[in-house]
Amino acid sequence: AAISACEKGGQWEKALELLRKMQERGVTPNRISFNSAISACEKAGEWEQALVLLDEVQQSSSGPDIISFSAAISACSRSGQSAKALQIFDDMHLSGVEAKTLAGNRTKERGTEGDGFEPDVIYYGAAISACEKGGQWEKALVILDEMRQNQYISLDVTSFNGAMRACIRGGQWARALALLDQIKQEPEVTPDIVSFNTAI
C-alpha cells in the first residue's frame, strides 16, 4: 500500500527505498510491489530504473505480468527510448507471459476456459505509442493487426490514432487515411477529434 501511494504521488525514489527496505528485512516483494515501483519510475521518466525493476520481477518467484511489461514499455517510450520499448514488447511475446490480470475477466465474460490469455489493449497501446515516437509505422501496423485478430481485445480509438501518427511520421499519408476509414468500419470504435485532426 505504501509503495502504491508513492506511485500515485510520483515519488519514485521513495518507492524504491521502501522496496529495498522490504528486501533488507527478508520480506520478498510481490508482483504488486514491483509493479507499483515500476509505474512510479515510469511516471518520473526513470526508464533505466524501470528496466532494472522489470529484470528483478522477472527473476522473482511471482514473475512479471501484463502490468509489469506495460509500465516498462511506457517508461521507455516516454523517455524517447522507442527501440528499448519495442524490445520489451517482443520479449514479452517470446516469454509467453499470460495477461490474466486484464484479459482474464473478459475471457470469463465470453464463457471461454483455459489459461492462454493474450496481452490486453493497454500493453498493445503502449507498444504502438513507442512505434509512433520512433517513427516505426510498419511495426505499428503489425501490432494493430495483432490487436484486431485477438478475440480477447476490444479495439480502442487511441491505438488507431497512434498508428495513424506513426504512419504520418513515416511519410505514409495514404496509409494513415486508410486507417481512418478502418476506424469507421469497426463496430466498437468511433473516430474522435484526434483521429480527424491527425488525418488533416
Per the principal axes of the C-alpha atoms, what is the gross shape? elongated
- Main sheet makeup: none
The total strand number stands at: 0
Total helical elements: 12
Radius of gyration computed on alpha carbons: 18 Å
Total separate domains: 2
Terminal Cα span? 45 Å
- Give me the secondary-structure category: mainly alpha
* Poorly predicted ranges: 98-119
Order of helices and strands: HHHHHHHHHHHH
Q: Give average pLDDT, whole number.
A: 82
Helix content: over 70%
What percentage of amino acids are in beta strands?
under 5%
Organism: Octactis speculum
Pfam family, one: PPR
Keywords: Repeat
Protein name: Pentacotripeptide-repeat region of PRORP domain-containing protein
Any descriptors?
single chain; 200 residues; mainly alpha; 2 domains; 12 helices; 72% helix
Question: How is this structure best described in words?
Answer:
By secondary structure, the chain is mainly alpha-helical. The protein has two domains: 1-100; 119-199. The protein is 72% helix and 0% strand. It is built from twelve helices and no strands. It has helices at 2-9, 12-24, 31-44, 47-59, 66-78, 82-95, 100-109, 121-134, 137-149, 157-169, 173-185, 193-199. The longest helix has 14 residues, at 31-44. The chain is elongated and about 60 Å long.
